[in-house]
Amino acid sequence: MQTAAEKGRRVLSAGALLGEAREVEIHHGDAVYRLRLTKAGKLILTK
């Protein structure tokens, strides 16, 4: 089975996206999404 990188997808760790923050904004077109790390260590993406 191929990994995501082998399939040509860009692979990032959550730590690379969040750094020291618990939440980041992702702008896509006119929409703004929030990627949040919960206290339980899960990721939630909301619009």
Index terms:
single chain; 47 residues; mainly beta; three-stranded antiparallel β-sheet; 1 helix; 3 strands; 36% strand; Hemin uptake protein HemP; Hemin_uptake_protein_HemP
Distance between the termini: 33 Å
Strand order of the largest sheet: 1-2-3
Subunit organisation of the chains:
single chain
Kindly report the average pLDDT value. 94
β-sheet strand percentage: 35-45%
Q: Which range best describes the helical content: under 10%, 10-25%, 25-40%, 40-55%, 55-70% or over 70%?
A: 10-25%
- What is the β-strand count? 3
Tell me the domain tally: 1
Counting DSSP H or I runs of 4 or more residues, the number of helices is 1
Report the order of strands and helices: HEEE
Descriptive overview:
Helix content is 11%, strand content 36%. The protein is built from one helix and three strands, in the order H-E-E-E. By secondary structure, the protein is mostly beta strands. The chain has one domain. The protein has a three-stranded antiparallel sheet. The longest helix has 5 residues. It starts with 13 loop residues before the first helix and ends with a strand. It is extended and about 30 Å long.
Summarize the structure.
The chain is mainly beta.
Question: How does the SSE layout of this entry go?
Answer:
Blueprint: H1 14-18, E1 23-28, E2 31-37, E3 43-46
Antiparallel strand pairs: 1-2, 2-3
